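In the present case, backbone shapes were mapped to integers, as reproduced here:
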Amino acid sequence: MSQTNPPDFDPSAVAALSADEPTGIHWPFARLSLFWRTFFLLAILLLGSILAWLQTLRSLEFEPRALQTSQQLASQVNLSRAALIHADAIARVSLIKTMKDEEGLRIVPREPNDEFSLLDSDTLSRRVAQDLAERLGKSTVVASQVNGQMGIWVSFMIDGDDYWLQADQSRFAPAGGTTWMIWLFVAAALSLAGAALIARLINRPLKELSFAASRVREGNFSASQLDEHVNTSEIREVNIGFNRMAQKLAKVEQDRAVMLAGISHDLRTPLARLRLETEMSVADESARAHMAADISQLDAIIDKFLDYARPDRVALAPVVLGDVVETCAYSLQKLPDVRIKIDMEEDLLVLADEVELGRVLSNLLENARRYGKSVNTGIAMIDIAAIARDKWVLIKVRDHGIGVAEEQLHQLTQPFYRGEAARTAANGAGLGLAIVDKTIQRMGGTFKLGNSSTGGLSAQIRLQRATRL
């Protein structure tokens, strides 16, 4: 057995066998599970609703807040002006100090060289300034800073002299701020939690149904029962229908096993008697040989039917691939019209059923022996190669015959299908490659047929790699 890796693996075929992701739509959203799709759609809907309501509330609050702010500022200006007008000079100084200490109002003379910035930083500020000008007079100036001092500054006149009234800006904060942001984050967090809960409730019964369907696919009918007493009526009806279907499939499987056992017994016994009678009663040696060959052919066809109808459950265990290949190739290597070349790593382990794997390789070797003979020499040259790729082992069985038409390749694994005349010299049942495909799937692998670039049919198998016996 060679130590080198086989050089004739088709890279495109290896890539196809190694691909784990399905082809088709590549839109990222299409690859998400149902849970995440539902979650994201609900989250977008809820967050959009929150933002819409937030904008609506801000719009509804804008007009009353602007009106309230302008009324308060106008009232402060009018009250301050009235108090200063009717106070004497001594009391006026005490009044100004009290207003600054108690109410945060500062009144200073307005000088011609004062530098100020108008209060127009946002829509609310511009609306307040406009409303104050309407209430106090068009000459009223509303500023956000005067001579570098921030605040809300409103100009007014007392006996022809101009003054500034500085109000505490914190009392007239614009709408929003940290309170709005806190409530926004709280509402968003609660909405996302609710979306996750709803998505989980929707996804859970579908996930249970998927698990139960996978168990039915594996032939484990007894462990695929779903709860028939859930509260949701639609889910309850689906679960009841699925359980009845699983029970019916289990009954069909049981009836099939009984029927196949009966067929095997009822056909094998008369075939054995017929073979014995033929060998004892037919004098012509040639005729006796042909009749015995026909009986052997019938017996082989019965074996094929039984193999194809074999239950889907198999016990997987680490198997030394080289030992199985050597065993399957041993009997064929002695035939004069067969040449087998084996090229694979030593001690290569695969996760499989040893008996089933041997049946698969025997089918492929027999198929190559029958239909893969060289047109020139009449000898079937068969190459068996295997390499390890990450968690998988790729196995290739290839002949050097005439190959198969490309349009027929995908049909070769269909039950009872027979290819072109050049590959159907024997009177088989058309189940050999179908058995191989079905068995490989039972063992968690993949099977692919293709024409080799240098001629002949190539059968490529991918099985799980085992790390230890």
About this structure: Residues 143 and 381 are 98 Å apart (CA to CA). The longest strand covers residues 149-158.
